[in-house]
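User: Sequence recovery, please. Input:
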């Protein structure tokens, strides 16, 4: 008996010593190892004091509407006054009735528990306080990120228990009881993928933590013990029994009357028919899913990866305008059906600006989703390189390079029906000689046209001649500067070379006809760059990012930079309005009810396998793009858009209709403006000296320019109305008109005249087999399509007018 009593006294003394060591300062007790342990422990205590926990990151549109949620643990931290008193009383009653009396560790309970555990040779009894439970759960749910760390946080050992006790006393000294209780309730799991009391309240009762009733609070407090087992949807009886135990504990603790407890215990649990859930990721964003994915990609590039989002509880306010998004989606799907086999249409709407470039909308005709059998997709169609190219839209790059080099927007260009270029690749139109690249127009055009009209009506041959004169490299470089930045990405062509390098090294003249896959977001940004007076800015989907405390998270945006001269951009934009007013897109503009100003360019690739349109003004820039997205590539037809054996889809049809339908229904787009421009660009503007030698002889021009320090070379070009050997214009290189730079005197070859200037630039093309009017269908292999100048409706209207005039 005396021996047994002695063992009991000795064991109790040992337990007391262990507890004293656990809650006493440890610095200096056992050297470096203990110091390091203490340092780690103090770091954890600081985290526990802050109470930061993994939370739900919310992605919002520009008006504050939620687009998507990203999370690892569905948790919505709340403040102390946002938790009902009933919830606080219930959890204290069942988990730690002496919570307001102890200082983090309940010595009475822990002496009993440690004695039992020592006798058992392990951990068989808990008696943890709320402070200790908070420590344990925090180390497991927040700090532990590997299996090894999770195992260490839950190992059944006296050492772990002592460590928790020490940390519990530390946080109890730093935080108020209400803060500790709030941190605990914000942390612990409640089952059904809910963490923290706010998420649990929403999951089971469809309410918030501030409005939990006593029986609701009792149920949740009881579930903390074993949230997986105590699931009201799979174990209603067990959860009800546990809830009633909590109610009785509240009576025993003096926080509830026996009468109320008895009444509450008779009530059903009152949970929702099924647990409320929160869609995780972009799959819950609906038609905003493509934009959501783009936001995640953009944030990752800026240093906020998916893991940070999933744990950080960030609020990401985006630039997406829900009204513009809805109108853009309606416009796309009114022209291309979501279930169209093997063909998709995408469009992005960007707001021009000289210091930012907000993405207002991003849509696809396809439904964002996982059901491939119903033509759904998760592929980033609107913002990745897809399709066969934008066709003649790329002619604007040639025009921009020409204006920059010294051509005039009203310069008359030769428009032969066929042109055979040397050194620009090979192939193209039928019967092309070896080592030449041959281009033909679709339809009949005047033999000369101004550059403005060539942009509006889109014949091919003038642009191949300009490419020959300016050089492919210059066109590619200006395309990249204006917005096609992915063309310069290493490996974008074949895994090693970039698309830009391949085109330049191969000197592919077909580039001006747009036969290369295109990123529709970048193409939209090309328009935004021109509309922003030549300033390129990176497309940006982010308005602001804040952390869980409301502090702004800084994102390092790529600075804006000048792509082309301000005056060149203004001249180009102003003169591209001709497409809206009288060119290949004018019918679509009228049909959509668009009455505003917009620069525009249509485009169609060889065999009509993809088609595009670029429209822009001061308010919006957008590039509808229709392309093959199925397993087979075939021509595309119009009305409805579909795959077919012989294509007749052109950029002036559904792609243009999509833009103008959207723009006509977005007030800002309808009110958007196009700038005036310096009329000196009508005939070309470089510098007074260079501009002054136009019309002079070669010897006069060469003498003046060489005297000024320029290196002069010459080239003969077709020049309507300019006498043989006279200077048509002076073309500068990429470095511009700097002194010492090389310039090219373009001299008239005397081959073109104005004799056919009166020829119609709006021909009707007749089908020789049927004797009826039809849209042109010719094109250039590896190149673009000339846009048809008349639709069937135009021809019918013209025919009726003729019949009426002659009384037929």
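Assistant: Recovered sequence (808 residues):
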């Amino acid at each position: 008996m005396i021996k047994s009593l002695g063992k009991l006294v000795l064991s109790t003394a040992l337990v007391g010593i262990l507890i004293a060591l656990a809650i006493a300062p440890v610095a200096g007790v056992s050297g470096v190892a203990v110091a390091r342990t203490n340092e780690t422990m103090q770091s954890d205590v600081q985290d526990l004091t802050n109470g930061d926990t993994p939370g739900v990151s919310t992605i919002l549109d520009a008006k504050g509407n939620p687009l998507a949620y990203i999370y690892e643990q569905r948790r919505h931290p709340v403040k102390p006054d946002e938790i009902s008193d009933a919830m606080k009383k219930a959890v204290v009653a069942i988990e730690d009735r002496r919570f307001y009396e102890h200082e983090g560790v309940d010595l009475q309970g822990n002496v009993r528990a440690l004695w039992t555990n020592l006798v058992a040779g392990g951990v068989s009894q808990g008696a943890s306080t709320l402070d200790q439970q908070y420590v344990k759960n925090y180390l497991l749910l927040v700090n532990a990120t590997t299996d090894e760390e999770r195992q260490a946080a839950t190992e059944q050992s006296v050492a772990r228990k002592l460590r928790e006790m020490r940390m519990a006393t530390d946080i109890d000294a730093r935080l108020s009881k209400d803060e500790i209780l709030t941190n605990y309730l914000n942390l612990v799991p409640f089952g059904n993928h809910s963490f923290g009391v706010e998420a649990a309240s929403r999951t089971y009762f469809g309410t918030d933590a501030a409005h939990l009733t006593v029986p609701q609070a009792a149920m949740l407090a009881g579930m903390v013990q074993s949230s997986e087992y105590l699931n009201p949807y799979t174990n209603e009886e067990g959860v009800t029994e546990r809830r009633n135990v909590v109610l009785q504990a509240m009576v025993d603790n003096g926080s509830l009357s026996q009468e109320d407890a008895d009444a509450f215990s008779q009530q059903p649990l009152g949970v929702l028919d099924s647990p409320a859930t929160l869609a995780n990721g972009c799959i819950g964003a609906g038609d905003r899913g493509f934009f959501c994915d783009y936001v995640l990609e953009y944030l990752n590039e800026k240093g906020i990866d998916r893991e940070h989002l999933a744990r950080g509880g960030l609020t990401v306010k985006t630039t997406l305008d829900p009204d513009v998004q809805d109108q853009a989606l309606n416009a796309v799907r009114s022209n291309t059906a979501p279930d169209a086999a093997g063909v998709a249409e995408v469009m992005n709407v960007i707001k021009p600006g000289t210091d930012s470039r907000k993405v207002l909308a991003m849509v696809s005709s396809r439904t964002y989703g996982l059901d491939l059998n119903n033509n759904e997709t998760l592929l980033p169609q609107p913002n990745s390189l897809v399709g066969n190219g934008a066709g003649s839209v790329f002619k604007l790059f040639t025009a921009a390079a020409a204006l920059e080099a010294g051509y005039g927007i009203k310069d008359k260009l030769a428009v032969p029906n066929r042109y055979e270029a040397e050194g620009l690749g090979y192939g193209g139109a039928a019967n092309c000689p070896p080592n030449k690249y041959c281009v033909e127009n679709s339809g009949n055009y005047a033999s000369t046209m101004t550059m403005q009209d060539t942009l509006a009506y889109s014949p091919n041959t003038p642009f191949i001649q300009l490419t020959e004169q300016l050089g492919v490299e210059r066109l590619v470089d200006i395309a990249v500067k204006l917005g096609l930045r992915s063309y310069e990405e290493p490996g974008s062509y074949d895994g090693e070379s970039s698309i830009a390098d391949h085109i330049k090294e191969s000197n592919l003249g077909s580039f001006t006809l747009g036969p290369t896959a295109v990123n529709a977001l970048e193409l939209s940004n090309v328009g935004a760059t021109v509309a922003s007076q030549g300033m390129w800015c990176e497309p940006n989907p982010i308005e602001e990012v804040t952390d869980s405390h409301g502090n702004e998270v800084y994102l390092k945006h790529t600075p804006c930079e000048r792509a082309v001269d301000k005056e060149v951009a203004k001249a180009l934009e102003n003169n591209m309005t001709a497409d809206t007013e009288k060119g290949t897109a004018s019918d679509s503009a009228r049909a959509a009810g668009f009455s505003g100003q917009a620069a525009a360019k249509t485009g169609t690739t060889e065999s009509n396998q993809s088609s595009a349109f670029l429209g822009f003004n001061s308010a919006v820039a957008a590039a509808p793009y229709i392309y093959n997205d199925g397993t087979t590539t075939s021509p595309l037809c119009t009305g409805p858009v579909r795959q077919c054996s012989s294509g007749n889809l052109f950029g002036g049809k559904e792609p243009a209709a999509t833009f103008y339908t959207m723009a006509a229904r977005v007030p800002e787009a309808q009110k958007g403006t196009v700038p005036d421009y310096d009329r000196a660009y009508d005939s070309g503007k470089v510098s007074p000296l260079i501009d002054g030698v136009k019309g002079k002889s070669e010897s006069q021009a060469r003498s003046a320019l060489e005297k000024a320090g320029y290196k002069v070379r010459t080239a003969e070009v077709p020049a309507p109305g300019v006498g043989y050997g006279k200077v048509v214009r002076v073309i500068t290189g990429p470095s511009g008109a700097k002194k010492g730079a090389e310039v090219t005197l373009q001299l008239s070859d005397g081959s073109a005249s104005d004799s056919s200037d009166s020829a119609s630039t709006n021909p009707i093309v007749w089908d020789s087999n049927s004797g009826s009017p039809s849209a042109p269908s010719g094109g250039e292999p590896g190149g673009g399509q000339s846009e048809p100048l008349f639709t069937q409706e135009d021809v019918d209207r013209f025919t009726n007018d003729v019949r009426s005039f002659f009384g037929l």
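The radius of gyration is 37 Å.
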